[in-house]
Design a protein that fits this description.
Regulator of disulfide-bond formation, SirA family protein, four-stranded mixed beta sheet, alpha+beta, 4 strands, globular, Translation Initiation Factor IF3, single chain
Length: 79
C-alpha cells in the first residue's frame, strides 16, 4: 500500500500513553490489511510502538525519526 493510500494519525505533542491509545482507537475503525502512519514526538514511543505491535495482531512495517518526529507505519492485523 502506498503512503498516499495509508491513513495518517498526528499525535505530536502527546505523551505516553495517549499516542498508543489514540493509535489503537484508530486501528479499531480500520479493516484488516489497511495501513496507518502515526506521527509522534514522545521519545518513549520507540519502545511503546514496538511493544504494542508485538503484543497485538498489528504489524510494525517501518519506523523512522527525523527532526524530533517519530513516524510509524502499522498494518492493521486480523481481529
Amino acid at each position: 500500500m502506498s503512503r498516499e493510500l495509508a491513513r495518517e494519525l498526528d499525535v505530536k505533542g502527546l505523551h505516553c500513553p495517549l499516542p498508543i491509545l489514540r493509535t489503537r482507537r484508530q486501528l479499531d475503525h480500520m479493516k484488516a490489511g489497511e495501513e496507518l502512519i502515526v506521527l509522534v514526538t514522545d521519545p518513549a514511543s520507540v519502545i511503546d510502538f514496538r511493544h504494542f505491535c508485538n503484543t497485538t495482531a498489528h504489524e510494525l512495517l517501518e519506523h523512522s525519526a527525523e527532526g524530533g518526529v517519530f513516524t510509524y507505519r502499522i498494518r492493521r492485523g486480523e481481529g
